[in-house]
Design brief:
The complex is a heterodimer of chains A (84) and B (125). With 84 residues, chain A is mostly helical. Chain A has helices spanning 5-20, 25-41, 47-71. In chain A, 69% of the residues lie in helices and 0% in strands. Chain B is an all-alpha fold and 125 residues long. Chain B is globular and about 45 Å long. Classes of the chains: A mainly alpha (84), B mainly alpha (125).
Chain lengths: 84, 125
């Protein structure tokens, strides 16, 4: 189990990549925001807590990937706030 | 009759794909014709969408994400992913962990960037 800063950064990038992959505006922005907020919230965790948070994030990454694939099977109308 | 049409279209698409593979033999990769200056200018535009410490200072290739732009490790990894999306490249994990300046990111991008779609299309046609 590695908690090295490099591994965490790589996890963070992977999660952001998945989050940015959503075509639906609301999902995309929610997941980007949630990823940023949760990593920032847990930035100062140490020891056991850090490992727990990282494992949770790894789980979330799997969920994110799966939902990304499923969500992108459907077509959503663009919202008015989006650039067409 | 329909079978003929299908066969003809299959043949043309097949030959098109064959042609594109022959185009690539030797090179293995499309050579990018996006200039480094373009990459640099677009990178700066992407970076400006983030909250930067010294927003008015000019960003040069030796600008450091953490020191000069006031980003922490989460911010600049965020920026790297934004750059990935802009240029449709993926930073290798080992590389991304080493990048400290804007210039390094731009170098990596210009090495790995694919040409824009319309150029790619033309080559395949």
């Amino acid at each position: 189990m590695t908690t090295s800063p490099q591994a965490v950064r790589s996890l963070y990038r992977s999660m952001l990549r998945e989050a940015r992959g959503f075509t639906n505006y609301n999902f995309r922005n929610y997941f980007i925001r949630r990823t940023r907020d949760s990593f920032r919230e847990n930035a100062n965790l140490k020891g056991e807590d850090a490992i727990k948070a990282i494992n949770e994030a790894k789980n979330d990454l799997k969920i994110l990937h799966r939902q990304n694939v499923i969500s992108n099977m459907y077509d959503f109308d663009k919202l008015v706030v989006e650039k067409v | 009759m329909f079978a003929n049409i299908v066969r003809a279209s299959l043949r043309s698409s097949l030959s098109a794909s064959l042609r594109s593979t022959t185009l690539n033999t030797g090179a293995f990769r499309f050579v990018s014709n996006v200039s480094k200056d373009d990459v640099f200018a677009r990178s700066i535009a992407v970076l400006k969408t983030f909250e930067l410490k010294n927003i008015n200072d000019e960003i040069t290739s030796s600008t450091q994400f953490t020191k000069d732009l006031g980003m922490d490790s989460l911010d600049y990894n965020d920026a790297l992913v934004a750059l990935e999306e802009e240029f449709d490249v993926v930073f290798d994990d080992a590389v991304a962990n080493e990048i400290t300046t804007v210039g390094e990111a731009v170098d990596y991008i210009s090495k790995n960037i694919m040409p824009e779609e319309d150029i790619l299309d033309k080559e395949i046609r």
